[in-house]
């Protein structure tokens, strides 16, 4: 007689493969479970990637969901995480084709899912900079909200996502070219924004631990550009901590 663990493993295998050996009887009951499992998986994917579904249509999305589930079956009891590998799957499945841009769009949509379950920390205002002397400003290190996600793409994915927040949106002209932007939670609302390249580069550098001066140099910002960037990061509620680099080195 099979142990409970063996029965569970065979049952899980049979949910994906009708030919898998499983002692559950009658087989018709197992078919019901298999159908419900596939339906729940696709439903979770549709919830996480509504814009991709809108752009490719229900039939093709269903084909993608089927192939994705074969390659990346769910490993968690929480269906929220079903789509964690969808962008990587699309990257391989659609590479070099006319729909290759869908992988980057999937990254935006999955970042939204990640942001939704990220904690929201108290945001600092620009007044915090008054705690430091002028000679210290270039050595400041910023920490950002855990929900912040930054993306750059060769395709106009932010324009695609924004356009498809209304029904029956027309296709976006792919000749618009590369775009970059951010996703984050602000005041319990999910925000998706394209960004100018300089500001994006500045945020990326800060997010990777660069000092304010290093980030300014990496992004090629002049003084007016820096002031505008600081106004943005504080105004968007992104900054949660400001520390001197020398203080961090002493820890």
Describe this structure in words.
Strands 2-3-4 form a 3-stranded antiparallel β-sheet, with helices on both faces. Strands 1-5 form a two-stranded antiparallel sheet. The protein folds into 2 domains: 1-100, no CATH class; 111-251, no CATH class. A hairpin with a 2-residue loop joins strand 3 (179-186) and strand 4 (189-194). Helices cover 49% and strands 12% of the residues. It has 11 helices and 5 strands, in the order H-H-H-H-H-H-E-E-H-E-E-H-H-H-E-H. It is mainly alpha-helical and 251 residues long.
Derived from helix and strand composition plus strand pairing, the structural class reads mainly alpha
Which assembly state applies to the chains in this document? single chain
Euclidean distance between termini CA atoms: 58 Å
Supply Rg: 23 Å
What is the typical, i.e. mean, pLDDT?
A: 88
Whole-number total of structural domains = 2
Shape: elongated
How are helices and strands ordered from N to C?
Answer: HHHHHHEEHEEHHHEH
Q: Which strands sit side by side, in order, in the main sheet? A: 2-3-4
What's the story with the biggest beta sheet? 3 strands, antiparallel
Q: Tally the helices: what do you get?
A: 11
Uncertain runs: none
Percent strand equals 5-15%
Task: Bin the helical content.
Answer: 40-55%
The total count of strands amounts to 5
Task: For the structure shown, list the relevant keywords.
single chain; 251 residues; mainly alpha; 3-stranded antiparallel beta sheet; two-stranded antiparallel ribbon; 11 helices; 12% strand
